[in-house]
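A quick aside before the break. I want you to see a complete sequence-to-structure record at least once, exactly as it would be stored in a machine-readable document. Don't worry about memorizing anything.
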Amino acid sequence: MLISDIPRKNARLYPDRVALIDGDVRITFSEFNVRVNRLAHAILNLGLNKGDRVAVLSENIYQYVELYFACAKAGIPLVPLNFRSNSEELSYIIDDSNAKLVFFRSKYLPIVQEIITRCPSVTGLIGMNQEFSDLLFYEDLIKNSAPAEPDVKIEEDDIVVLGYTGGTTGRPKGVMTTHKNLVSSCFNAVVGIGIKPEMIYLNVPPLFHAGDAMAMFAFAFMGATNVTLSAFNPEAVMKTIEQQRVTHALLVPAMILAILRYPQLSDFNLKSLECIIYGTAPMPMEPLRKAIRILQCKFLQVYGATETFVPISLLLPEDHVLEGTPEQTRRMSSAGREVIGVEAMIVDDDDEEVPIGNMGEVIVRGDNVMKGYWRLPELTSETLCNGWYHTGDIGKMDGDRYIYIVDRKKDMIISGGENIYPQEIEDVLFQHSEVAEAAVIGIPDDNWGEAIKALVVKKTGSTVTEADLLEHCKQNLASFKKPRSIDFVNDLPRSTAGKVLKYEIRAQYWCNRDRKV
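That is the input. The structure line, written in tokens, reads:
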């Protein structure tokens, strides 16, 4: 089975069932398949061939879902762009992927026009929700194209999504996800979550994230309904759940905390909500307990990565026991157990499995693991070593194979569900003429999971202030990557080899925490 088979299968099985809801827009599976076919033909008619890339810059709208499936049918890998990124980051990704078309929501026209001058591969711009006199328009492409299935031979090893994730070198790296990878991920999610055709899933996190895209595909895989919400705010989420009778939603911990703080929470009828899926960052225990009590639905945690198109393990609803034994209470802080199609192992630096309860790197294998990194063969070989994907997460496993994530081997920060790599921020700080040294870490934050903190050594005689450096970062980084605070220090702890010992720096902020993430 291929991802491109999903719309056609659902159109046969559930022609009149609603596939997509976006505000007042409701599209049945029969209509959805025809629209996806037309869009696939339109993309090919614009001169693209199988294997060419298409980028999309948009918040969650129903056209985004259509584009995912249309590209899959056309044999065109989709490059989802993070709309929170700045123009330099976006132009790098478009240029690195050699995307030929850019689909965009109208609000991003200024930044698209800015970055397009640096991207010679782009041959066309398509407005998704608004018509522009000198650009192509999404609905015109659909209206003027054929409704038949595209005659493109798709193989399970063909790339369906080229999703870029942060890189330790400061440059994002493209993760090549194939039809086989994504279908496997769908099976893992369907079995683990227990997805059924009558369910209604709310897409709240951005569809450019593998987490929400995975869930969207998995619910569509079973003929369930997808509801799109363009931006998160507690009222909009609860109103949509109430109006559309949503049964499932994926929320990052920061979103759950915002909902719990919303004063009018009790005014909404959320009885249709069967399960909240959460992940991308650890969830503090007390807010999790509070959420279970107040929202009165099941909770399910997912642990994964872009490289696995997310599901590695699940902490199932039956593991969320509020008043349980010490063992049950402890397991609520775990990432659960492997999904059905994934094998996980905890290894030492020599890739040897460590004894139960010992810490080491989490490595996994399964059909959902990526094909590799785009144009980065050495990094691919290093990451997919001996047939296993090396996550870079430090964890341990108990006797029942519950996985506990305790730290990160890679120097990554997760804030509000976004993966942030310190070196990129450090590089920007080093560009300031009065910075001698800089180290960036994540520190505990009850709202965002982690907040970005920079420690800076000034050059001799410098008068630079925290406000100066924060403004410098604001001008050169996406807003979510900007440090929340900067501390000035006389020196940074280093190893005998001269490497900054970040674990020593982090220790003072995480000393009272069981987990170091």
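Two observations worth writing down. Residues 29-45 form the longest helix (17 residues). The chain is about 30% helix and 25% strand. We'll return to this after the break.
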